[in-house]
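User: Can you help me understand a structure? I only have the sequence.
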Amino acid sequence: MPAGKTSPPAVGKVSPPPASAASTGSPAASAAGATASAGAGGEDDGCDHTMPISPDEIAVYRYTPEGGSLSLIVRYGNWGCGTPDSDGAPFETVGKETYLPMNQAAYVTVTNPVVASTENQRIGVQEFLDWLEAHPDSGLVFRYQLGADGAVDRLEQVFTP
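Assistant: Let's start by predicting it. Here is the structure, written out as C-alpha cells:
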C-alpha cells in the first residue's frame, strides 16, 4: 500500500474488533441481540423482524492501514424486509462499526457502482481501496470469507439494485 494512503477518518468513533469476531468471522456479540419489531403503525407486516445477523455478510464503509496491517471498517447486519414496490430487501446494519482485517492479496469482486456491471467483476485490492477512499461510507454489502490467519481472503459484493 502506498505511503500516506488512508481512508478519510470516521465521523464517529470506531470500536476495536472483538477477539471472537476477528478469529471466527462472527459478528460481535452486541450485534447478535437484534430485537423484533412490527411494521409501520405497529401492525403485523408479515415480515420476520427477528432474523439473525448474517454470519458471512458485511456492509463496508472505509479502510485503515493503522497498526501496519490493512483492516476494513464494517458493520454487521441482516437482510430486512422489502416493500412491495421496492427492488428488494435492504441490508440493515446493527451494532457499532468494527475492524475486519483484510489480506492484501484477497480475491475481490464488485458490481455497480464500483464497476459498470450488474455481474461481479474481479478487481485488485488496491483498486478497491482507491474506490473506498473516493466513496467513504458507501455501506456496500459484501459476502466474505476468512483465511486461516483470520483476515478476509475473499470479498464478493452482493448486487443490490
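Now, to help you interpret it: The mean pLDDT is 78. Residues 125-134 form the longest helix (10 residues). Let me know which part you'd like to focus on.
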